[in-house]
Design a protein that fits this description.
The protein has helices at residues 35-41, 73-94, 106-117, 160-172, 190-208; strands at 8-11, 21-24, 47-50, 54-56, 59-61, 65-67, 70-71, 100-104, 124-128, 146-152, 176-182. It has 212 residues and is α/β, with parallel strands linked by helices. It has a single domain (8-208), classed as Alpha/Beta hydrolase fold, catalytic domain (Rossmann fold). Helix 3 links the parallel strand 8 (100-104) and strand 9. Helix 2 crosses helix 3 (106-117). The protein starts with 7 loop residues before the first strand and ends with a helix. Bound molecules: D-malate.
Amino acid sequence: MFAPTFIHRFEPGTKTEAIPLLLLHGTGGDENDLLPLGRAVAPEAALLSPRGQVLEHGAPRFFRRLSEGVFDEDDVRRRADELASFIEAARTHYHIASPMALGYSNGANIAAAMLLLHQTVLSGAILLRAMVPLTTVVPVDLAGKPVLILSGAQDPIVPVENAARLSDLLRAANALVEHHTLPVGHGLSNEDVAVVRRWLQDAVKATRSPTP
Ligand code: MLT
């Protein structure tokens, strides 16, 4: 029996081969926030959207932070474990393949932590305004996992240098990283939507085309 450990929304896909998306909202968001974005970038995909379980002055998040950009790393690890267990249970219940995370801000950071701590749970990740979530990680192998990172050149929360370190870290783990810095701030823009949609279409084609 599926006793969901996270409040969540699930929308079935219309094509079984479309990669399911795991939608992870930013601080103060909830399970409804990214559904329109998910539908816009992947019209035929199943969407699984949990709500973060940490409350910061009433604002849902996926892990605790000590101050802006300074994370409680024990909590990051614990929450990443809990989210990974939820995803595995939800996959069985909803009959979906390993999802591609689509995370924004705090949601992108927990997605990055899951890549580093639970290599098999995600099929890849789209990280919007992400930072390095953990200062120390054991070496992991993310060979063949597609990762798109979109940063903002004027982002007051995520320094450009920090996003570059995240992309280096994931590349060093053999993920197939594409990293773009857009001329925007921390908020999402139409350009994010367009780049994500294009990238996802290519990712789907890559999984379908036979290797030469
Ligand atoms: C975080 O706490 O994960 C990042 O600082 C982004 C944010 O949620 O503001």
